[in-house]
Automatic annotation (TrEMBL):
Pfam families in the cross-refs: GerE, Response_reg
Residue list for modification 4-aspartylphosphate: D54
PROSITE patterns (UniProt xref): HTH_LUXR_2, RESPONSE_REGULATORY
Organism: Thiothrix caldifontis
Protein name: Two component transcriptional regulator, LuxR family
Amino acid sequence: MRILIVDDHPLFREALGSLLERFYPSAAVFEVGSVEEAEGVVRQYAPFDLIMLDVLLPGQSGVAGLETLHANVTTDTPIVIMSGSDNSEMMNQALAKGARGYIAKSAGVGDVKNALHLILAGEIYISPSMLAEVRQRAETKDPPPPNLLPPVDNSGLTPRQRDVIRLMARGLPNKSIARELNCSDGTVKLHVSAILRTLHARNRTEAVQAATRLGVL
């Protein structure tokens, strides 16, 4: 397993690297300080199983940095955005460009572990604080960031799907939702797919926002 950390703060890089080595003892963890350095490492050592990208970097950063890395890796390599602040507009832009998660740098060790487990299983992770901001934005009827959700007349969700999305809004991964609802992970995945399809959402964040607008949450 190969993991690449792209962050311009050496102390944070080293701390995160140590944490990842604890989570995945057999992993080779690479650390660089810019997208430009990351391009060279990717070309030399690809393929990577996970890339963790700081949202603010010298040179290319944000969505531009994400797009550059996506152009240099295989399509199934998950790229996770790390951020020191909650910025829902940046988060939605990153998810729209293919980021597989948005993790706050203030997240606890357990939250990071759960997030990476979800992402490496093929899911998308949004930190609970960001989901809370999305809900608050919808509840106060602030204009959402551009290019988000199409209008939806009614939710069309089944009672069980409503249970699932309420747990999604708390930031729970599929495995935790399955435990809460006493069902299998596979069943939860089917419900999540159906929820996204019904609400015309591209990811969990958009689904939570739509459900809030419709009074489900």
